[in-house]
Amino acid sequence: MRRTWERVRSEPGLKRNLAVLAGLIVLAAVVGGWILGNQRFTPPWENRLIVNATFEGTPGISPGNGQEVRIAGVPVGEVRSADVDDNGNAVVEMAIEREHAVYEDATVVLRPKSPLNEMYILLDPGTPGAKRLSDGDTLPVTASERPVQIDEVLGYLDDNTRHALAALVVESDAALASAPARLPAGLEKTTALLRDMKPVSESLSKRRDALSELVTALGQISQAVGEDDVRLAKLASALDRTLGTVGKRNEELDSTLSQLPGLAGQLKQSTQAVQKLSGQLNPTLDAVRSAAADLPGALSKLSGTADRLGSTMDVLGPLAENARPVVDDLRPFTADATRTVRSVKRFSPLIDPVTSTLVKHTRDVGAFVLNTRSLTTLADANGGITRAQLTFGVNGLPIKDHSSEEGR
């Protein structure tokens, strides 16, 4: 170094050339650093969290162009690369600052940053209760969303709808061409409309305040429930025991559920029978209703009858008292009367043929009785007559013998 420095000092013009070269090197370093800084240069010593996110599709993603990864709208990283996995989904590599933790329940959404469809990734880092992601971990496709592109919407339209949409755009252009002449009147009407809508907005504001109070109250309730760990633990243990008991009785529950269709059928039949019965009960209820209308008059008449019956019972009371000794005296004859009736019962079948024979000769028997009403007189209803007396027995009557038939 000493010999080199002596040479630089001794050789004419060499010192000046070295100074110019050093200045150019410094200038190149400054310009190169500025350019690399604006080109989002990633130094090798940078320490960032590398996390992958899986999307069904990533329209508008261009790795290396500084597309941002944002949390709550604040840039915290950038998109490094994009690839396709074995299932045909897009896998995007994100480099995130280390101070921002990302958890297993994180979600990612593709958002357009400009009308030119330039995208950025909106990252919800998840909750601290979940597992924290490390370098190289990948979020599943279920944790991602992508925006719907305008060409996808137009792809579902048929030709007529597309022509109608084009005509609408053309007519809108023509309408906007005359906007300076017609727009002020429309704006005035809009002002009147907004003035009329003021009560509605006030009502909506009051409703928003009420909803805010409701949300606050619900938050306080949830906070109170979260602080009561003992009751929550008891509730969880009771729920566990209940589910365990239900699991042990799974077969019985299955058998009970298998009987439900038959029970439903029987219940349906019973319901139909009840409907038929109700249809039959309606005329009965109408008759009962009409009878109920006649019932007060009948009850009033019955009360009069009851009054008269009471007076009759008052009269019959002494008679019953006087008849009691007579009944006591007649009791000894009851047994004799019973035996007599039993004796007469044997001859009662013989009386029927005699009665049937006498019925045929009722007129002759009447005349006979009239003529023989006295055994001592010689006159009858027609005057004096020589009388004769004829005596006959039962065996002489033309009566069919029923005793032999009964014996047989």
UniProtKB/TrEMBL annotation:
<dbReference type="InterPro" id="IPR003399">
    <property type="entry name" value="Mce/MlaD"/>
</dbReference>
<feature type="domain" description="Mce/MlaD">
    <location>
        <begin position="51"/>
        <end position="126"/>
    </location>
</feature>
<dbReference type="Pfam" id="PF02470">
    <property type="entry name" value="MlaD"/>
</dbReference>
<protein>
    <submittedName>
        <fullName>MlaD family protein</fullName>
    </submittedName>
</protein>
<dbReference type="InterPro" id="IPR052336">
    <property type="entry name" value="MlaD_Phospholipid_Transporter"/>
</dbReference>
